[in-house]
Specification:
310 residues, alpha/beta, 7-stranded mixed sheet, 4-stranded mixed sheet, 11 helices
């Protein structure tokens, strides 16, 4: 294993496809970081817009930006496709040369001390193996509104990991719920995934949420499918759908989630092939239903602290 000379060296890996509309905001916000990445690998996953030219311009200006072209699969593919592109980029580096890595989307505007603050938190508590800030978006009134992700998960669009934790959980699965399975696996192994809602860690998610009727319902159905794949208990899924029905699109969004979940169940779709993890997830979900998520997380993390080694 190579020796890490800088304990704060981190690598960003960004799969992208046709991101010309938003990517300059992301690129500029990373260039402006108080602690810059040692390397930023950006995988151009078959873009047909101005993305390649924009990437070439930034790579020419910053020697720590490396663009990797991936053959065009012909369409945008969330979930498995994104992780396939992520690994296409990861395979081009020696991960042992870095202390941290982050899967970063190219439709975000990050605050200037974002990565510095995350590394501070992991140094204060190395048991936090994966973390992130919180995503906000501009609503119809032009106000910044939280996407409402709870504190016990790190967010998929800026999934920041210690390399040690990333390797311990086996990286990302190539399926829709990759960004939930990694957090549950980390907690199962004694780590403590986290995200924080504080001014220096709030980022702007630029891609409009629900910008078309198709995307938001498709997204909710996909989420329901992903919950089924991960092993979520039906009672927890129903509770989640009811909770989601309180935000736009009222009721219909929750119903779309249930359609995705129970549709997969009726089709007898194969679930994530890790029975011990599925059992662990369901145990957590039952506790969360009766005690609340953070109380359940506290109990589980206390029970599993002995599994984590300094």
């Amino acid at each position: 294993m190579s020796h890490i000379h800088d304990p704060r060296s981190y690598v960003l890996i960004s799969p992208c496809r046709n991101e010309a509309q938003y990517m300059r905001r992301t690129l500029d916000s990373v260039v402006a970081q108080s602690a810059k990445p040692a390397l930023w690998v950006i995988i151009d996953d078959g873009s047909t817009d101005e993305t390649p030219q924009i990437l070439a311009d930034y790579a020419a200006e910053h020697d720590w930006i490396r663009v990797v072209a991936k053959p065009d699969r012909g369409h945008r593919a969330v979930g498995p496709g994104v992780i396939e592109a992520f690994y296409f980029g990861l395979d081009t580096i020696n991960l042992s040369e870095f202390a941290y890595l982050c899967k970063l989307d190219l439709d975000l505007d990050l605050p200037p001390r974002y990565f510095e603050t995350l590394m501070d938190r992991l140094e204060e508590n190395p048991r936090i193996g994966t973390c992130s800030g919180k995503a906000y978006f501009r609503n119809a009134k032009g106000e910044m509104e939280s996407e409402g992700i709870t504190d016990e998960m790190s967010l998929g669009m800026t999934k920041f990991f210690s390399v040690r934790c990333f390797e311990d959980v086996g990286g990302f699965v190539r399926e829709v719920m990759w960004d939930g399975i990694d957090c549950h696996t980390a907690r199962q192994k004694g780590w403590t995934p986290r995200s924080w809602d504080e001014p220096e860690l709030r980022f702007d998610h630029l891609r409009p949420m629900g910008s078309s009727q198709t995307s938001i319902y498709t997204g909710r159905r996909r989420h329901g499918f992903g919950q089924y794949y991960m092993g979520t208990h039906p009672a927890f899924m129903i509770a989640s759908a009811i909770n989601k029905s309180r935000v736009p699109p009222y009721m219909l969004g929750g119903l779309a989630m249930l359609q995705g979940y129970f549709g997969a169940m009726l089709r007898r779709v194969a679930r994530h092939d890790d029975p011990a993890l599925r059992k662990f997830i369901r145990s957590y979900q039952w506790k969360a239903l009766f005690k609340g998520k953070m109380r359940a997380v506290e109990e589980i993390e206390a029970e599993r602290a002995h599994l984590w080694q300094v």
